[in-house]
Every structure is written in structure tokens, then in C-alpha cells.
Amino acid sequence: MGLEKEKLDTSIIMDEDEFNRSIEPILSKKGKVYTAEPDRDPNDINAHLKVGFEDVIAEPISAHSFDRVWIGSHAVFELVKFIFYRLLSTLLAVPMAFILGVVFGVLSCIHIWLVMPVIQSFLMLLPSIQVVWRSLTDMFILPLFHSMGKILSSVQVKTIEN
Predict the structure, then answer these.
(1) What is the Cα–Cα distance from 33 to 20, expressed in whole angstroms?
(2) Whole-angstrom Cα distance, residue 74 to residue 111?
């Protein structure tokens, strides 16, 4: 009887929808209407970072803590994850955006003005190099292999069983 009442109390305190949402809407729930946030990862580049409480902490059926402890630890986990992400992104986002902008700008410049012209130059030179290479193989390697083929064509191999 007491266990059923405790579960009933916890379901009244926090329903499933509120339990599954992140801590941000719970903290900012002061009469605001929920609107869908814009998708900041439309290509799903960071799908592996979508880690929830259930992905990190899982209690098997044989070892359950109290429901209020489970709900409280879930709330603390989400709150700390939210606060530290916001704090670290506030401190690191602008400097990292600057550094990555410089890195990708330099890489783009190198690729556009150095790598592609060198590749195009090699592609223009390859047909003439192919002609020279073919004439060298026709002059030196082809006669060598023809003569080796004629010499070795007269070799006969017989197997004799004892």
C-alpha cells in the first residue's frame, strides 16, 4: 500500500512529458508559450552527442533507487549539463569560431590558389609524359620481354614419377 501511494505521489508531482523534457523548459516555465526551436544541426552532424540521462545512468530492475531520488538525480543531471554547456559555450564559442574561421579560410586559400593549380598542371602534363613513357617502354622494356619470351618458350617441363 505505501509503495503504491509513493508512486502515485511521484506521478502527480512530475508527469511523463515533464520528466522527459530537458531542464531548460522547466526552469523557464513562467507563462511563456513553448515554440519550436530552430534546428541548429539540420545535417545531424552531432547526432552522437544527443546523450540523455537514460543513456548514461540506468538502473536494472533488480536495483532501483527511490523514485524521488531517481527524479531528483535526473533533474540535477539535466540542470548541470545545461548550465555547463551554456557556460563553456559562452566562454569558448567566439574564440573557437574565430580560430576555425582562420583555419578554414587558410585551407580554402591554399586549396584554391595552390593545390588545384598544381593538380591541373599535372593533368595537362600527363599526356605528354604518357607519350614519353610509352616510347621508353617500347624501346627498352618491350624488346627485353620479347626476347625473354622467345628464349623461355623453348623450355619444356616434364614431370617424372619415381
Answers:
(1) 18
(2) 48
Contact 80, 19 (CB under 8 A): no
Asked whether the predicted pLDDT for residue 23 surpasses 80, the reply is no
By C-alpha distance, which of 70, 78, 79, 77 is closest to 14? 70
Contact 22, 78 (CB under 8 A): yes
Largest CA distance in the chain: 101
pTM of the model: 0.48
Q: Cβ(93)–Cβ(82) under 8 Å? A: no
CA distance to 101, 105, 114, 118, per residue, from 111 (Å): 15, 10, 6, 10
- The SS3 of residue 43 is coil
- pLDDT at residue 61, as a whole number: 83
- Cα(11)–Cα(19) distance, rounded to whole angstroms? 10
